[in-house]
Write a structure and sequence with these properties.
This protein has 18 helices and no strands. By secondary structure, the chain is mostly helical. Among the domains are: 89 residues; 65 residues, Tetratricopeptide repeat domain (Serine Threonine Protein Phosphatase 5, Tetratricopeptide repeat). Helix 6 packs antiparallel against helix 7. 36% of the residues are buried.
Length: 423
């Protein structure tokens, strides 16, 4: 008899446990139906209500109250309640409940048997934060937007959209440290536009007055994406701003030594010299603009003009090496045409500034200019041939015609510019 009673006790205990587990199963079943019908809340809402009733019953029973499956199911149900609740106070309460359930589910689900349900609940809460962040961003409340996006990112740390939005909103809020942290996080994910991320990072470091950081991050970018013209250009720009032209040239020449037939490396070296020439030109303009009327010419201008010319010549020499490898390398051809023509434009402009009584000096300067213009002509024409719809190529060619006093061809080229498709 004792044995029979003991057997009956165990049977009743098993039935009780099954009954309580049944409440979790009922909650899961009702929630599954809600999930299917969530596009139509008139149909879906009753299922969500039933799911809440069932999971609350399971949570109130000591046999299932600490079950990983109960926590995971409760997290999903309450996350959806928070997402669909129209009353702000009730939604906040549901959100907190879901957050606590997710935490408990992660702590108790040591075998990862409920990971998909936990992730589902987490993404639901993250979506709530994403929606809030978008509204704040659209209202130009960038600080609040960052907080919302960052809250979502903390729930699902690997969600690249939330990381990106956190970075963008932090940048707009001028919270450059947070923006940098999030953009750097993107470089470690599977985000598809990492080249743009590295470009943006350099800008943020410079905004944050951290030139060293900018140089370091752009170097990391060019190392990972050595064929990216955009990153290499950015590296050159930042390096020149930091006075590192020599370092840039040495770096590129070392790469050329290892890969002498790589046309892009010669192009990048040419770009370094081109940028240095442009920097010298900008410095000349500043000095000329700041000069007082009637003052003696600043000797620094002569030095800068020579520096500019030297860098244009060096650029031309290196671009020619790129073109020798690939005569149809458009980027190198168009730049070669420009750096060859730039000294001619300087000579031409200088001639126009001479007093009218200096006829010989004027004629000599114009003759030199014409000779230099003719050296550029083949590359200018080739660039247009390679890309007839390039505004830069056509503008360069027009400058050649103007410099050589060929008004007819200059006008014809202008018509081609005007006929280009409008973006």
């Amino acid at each position: 008899m004792k044995i029979r009673l003991l057997t009956a006790f165990f049977a009743l205990s098993a039935l009780s446990a099954l009954a309580q587990q049944g409440a979790v199963d009922d909650a899961k079943e009702a929630y599954s139906k809600f999930d299917v019908a969530r596009g139509n809340m008139a149909i879906g809402k009753p299922f969500l209500t039933s799911a809440k009733t069932a999971i609350d019953k399971a949570a109130g029973n000591k046999k299932t109250a600490t079950s990983p499956q109960m926590y995971a199911t409760k997290a999903a149900i309450y996350a959806s309640l928070a997402a669909t609740e129209t009353d702000a106070s009730a939604a906040a309460t549901d959100y907190t409940t879901a957050t606590e359930a997710i935490k408990s589910a992660k702590e108790t689900d040591t075998k990862n048997e409920n990971s998909s349900m936990i992730l589902h609940a987490s993404r639901e809460l993250a979506q709530i934060q994403l929606d809030k962040g978008v509204k704040a961003f659209q209202a130009k409340n960038f600080d609040e937007a960052y907080k919302d996006f960052d809250a979502g990112r903390q729930i699902v740390p690997e969600d690249t959209l939330l990381v990106l939005y956190s970075a963008i909103s932090a940048s707009n809020a001028k919270n450059y440290t947070a923006a940098i942290d999030n953009y750097k996080k993107l470089t470690t994910t599977n985000y598809s536009k990492k080249i743009e991320v590295y470009n943006d990072l350099t800008t943020l470091y410079l905004y944050n007055k951290d030139t060293t950081g900018a140089i370091k991050i752009i170097s990391e970018g060019t190392t990972k994406y050595p064929t990216s013209t955009d990153l290499r250009k950015r590296e050159i720009e930042i390096g020149l701003q930091a006075g590192q032209q020599g370092d840039l040239v040495n770096k590129i020449e070392a790469a050329i030594k290892a890969d002498p037939n790589n046309k892009a490396l010669y192009y990048y070296e040419g770009l370094t010299y081109s940028q240095a020439a442009e920097s010298a030109g900008n410095a000349i303009k500043k000095l000329q603009k700041g000069a007082k009327a009637g003052a003696k010419p600043d000797p620094q201008i002569d030095k800068l003009e020579q520096t500019r010319l030297d860098n244009y010549n060096k650029a031309a020499d290196v671009y020619k090496k790129a073109v020798a490898i690939d005569p149809n390398y458009f980027e190198a051809v168009i730049n070669l045409g420009y750096v060859t023509m730039a000294p001619a434009i300087d000579l031409y402009n200088s001639a126009q500034q001479l007093p009218v009584n200096q006829t010989k000096a004027y004629n000599d300067a114009m003759a030199k200019a014409k000779t230099q213009f003719e050296l550029a002509k083949p590359y200018l024409l080739k660039a247009v041939e390679l890309n007839p719809n390039s505004l830069d190529a056509l503008t360069n060619l027009k400058s050649y015609y103007l410099g050589t006093r060929d008004d007819a061809d200059a006008n014809a080229t202008q018509k081609k510019i005007e006929a280009l498709p409008k973006n």
